[in-house]
Amino acid sequence: MLILGIESSCDETAAAVVRDGREILSSIIASQIDLHRPWGGVVPELASREHLEKIEPVVDEALAKANVTLKDIDAIAVTQGPGLIGSLLVGVCYAKALAWGLDIPLVGINHIEGHVYSINFENPPVEYPALALIVSGGHTNIFHVPREGKYKVVSRTRDDAAGEAFDKVAKMLGLGYPGGPVIEKLALEGDASRVKFPRAKISDGRPDMSFSGLKTAVSRYVKENNIAPLQNGDIPAQEIKDLAASFQNAVVSALVHTLEKLGVELRPKTLIVAGGVACNLALRSAAEASARKLGIPIYFPSKHLSTDNAAMIAAAGYFHIKNGERADPSMTADITLRLQNLDVEQLKGKAKYRL
Ligand code: KG4
Ligand code: ZN
Hints:
The chain is an alpha/beta fold.
């Protein structure tokens, strides 16, 4: 089965052709990073206009690269949410029109579930139950996945996503956007033990995470030590490299500590780490070490599948299409879409788990 995946939830316009959920025939990504860089973050209005410009050429390129035409496509999977409404609508409207015109099935995919499926292409099949850490610019959650397609949030950030913390700290230090890759690069030459940042404690004892206190601690450290943000072309001083390494270390240790704790408790058969921050090699090696300790296999997507792409959306779509699911014509973009579909009743009245 050939599925055309379409992703436009944030600042990447992407299309991919995937065979049977596991083989990528093409994966095209038009990144808007350069467009948003001068603003230090994604500007929603600019993002949706750019998606509108790029969606058709990106889909055409994905088909051409896969050496297929629209007639060969069996179904379409499109990101339905969460994300920026204007951005999502471009992909959803385009996919709906295309599926209707071709008279083929369409499914709307949760973007976070897409990240879970990003490990499908280069790893052995997942054994369930699995534990999945999805860590990106917009999300930081750990899901218990007792069987394919069933998700329960067992940990989440109470405030900022980990990727957002990377981006905000980079902005504070004048390092540019997005923050993750540049902080990772500087951290390679920094001393992670130079600044000790305490791990956030969650007062109700849940295995949740928090990164906004860490961001404030970095800001305080910058002020107290008179560290000036870099100007264009400045060479970063050693204290900035040390700060980058210490900050990265604090984020990685919070993520891996939580994953390991839940790994001990839930004894999954597979660990999954995915999302933009999964590009980070310090996170990968710490998570790998932890998985070795637990004796559980751990799967990551390769770098180009860690950040937003449409191949992961097509892979998730394959599962749903095979499951007999079809989007009806009233399907539309949903910025509040949640992935948790287990034990939701039980959580009512307790702390709200927002994905
Ligand atoms: O998954 P993604 O492309 O978009 C969202 O769904 O949010 O993730 C983008 C995020 C950004 O916050 C970026 O700073 C972060 O992933 N990121 C990294 C690295 N590469 C990207 N964070 C840490 N280290 C990296 N190497
Ligand atoms: Zn994403």
